[in-house]
Amino acid sequence: MGGRLPPKGSKVGLLGGSFNPAHKAHCQISKEALVHLGLDEVWWLVSPQNPLKDTKGMAPLAERVNSALSIPKHPKVRVTTIESQVRSVYTADTLSRLKQIFPWVDFTWLMGADNLSQIPLWRDWQDIFNTVKVAVFARPGYSLQAANSKAARRFRNVRVSEKLARSLSTRVAPAWTIIHGQQLDISSTAIRNGKRKD
Ligand SMILES: Nc1ncnc2c1ncn2[C@@H]1O[C@H](COP(=O)(O)OP(=O)(O)OP(=O)(O)O)[C@@H](O)[C@H]1O
Ligand SMILES: O=C(O)c1ccc[n+]([C@@H]2O[C@H](COP(=O)([O-])O)[C@@H](O)[C@H]2O)c1
After folding, report:
1. Cα of 18 to ligand 1 centre, how many Å?
2. ipTM > 0.95?
3. What is the pLDDT averaged over residues 97-125?
4. Signal peptide: which range, if any (predicted)?
5. Which of 5, 11, 120, 197 is surrounded by the fewest CB atoms within 10 Å?
């Protein structure tokens, strides 16, 4: 990974995504992660290819990286191609590589509520919860099912209340929370379909 190395003890949020294209909700949940979790930085991991998504309609990685770079966002958000550098499309693999490369960094995985419902389909999904802290962001239409999902039930004993979200950084994995911030009804799908511009 190029650029400045995170200092010892840094708290870094990881927002993995297709960013096909990037939009305002990605910026919004990144800002909320910085504020509510007290993170030092958020890294966007632009996925080479989500293993569960169709390759048809997936713009080339360079185009999606450009979209992530060009959208206005918080100065503490960094756009990265870490997954293509470590040749991983599976989050569990990416996280174990990141922990090897940056053993001094405290990582939190960030994702929207849709992905909390879907995560049991991911490779080695329970390892993800056991490796890093997880913060889930409420999303219009998905939050109720996410709160009762298989993953939420499996890890219910280590769920941290939203009021204590900031304490995630002092905890060891597994520990996770759901943050109900400003919820934006925006998706890359709607933008690709011409239903929205942002
Ligand atoms: N409106 C939103 N609210 C909360 N989280 C979101 C929102 N949009 C995207 N996310 C989260 O950001 C991460 C990256 O999302 P992604 O790039 O797939 O965007 P998307 O809008 O969900 O895309 P698509 O419509 O193509 O599936 C995922 O964890 C996703 O859940
Ligand atoms: O590891 C997996 O099996 C896996 C399956 C589906 C999605 N993911 C990751 O989930 C993140 C969000 O993906 P997306 O396409 O919803 O933005 C992104 O980092 C993907 O690589 C990971």
Report:
1. 8
2. yes
3. 97
4. none
5. 197
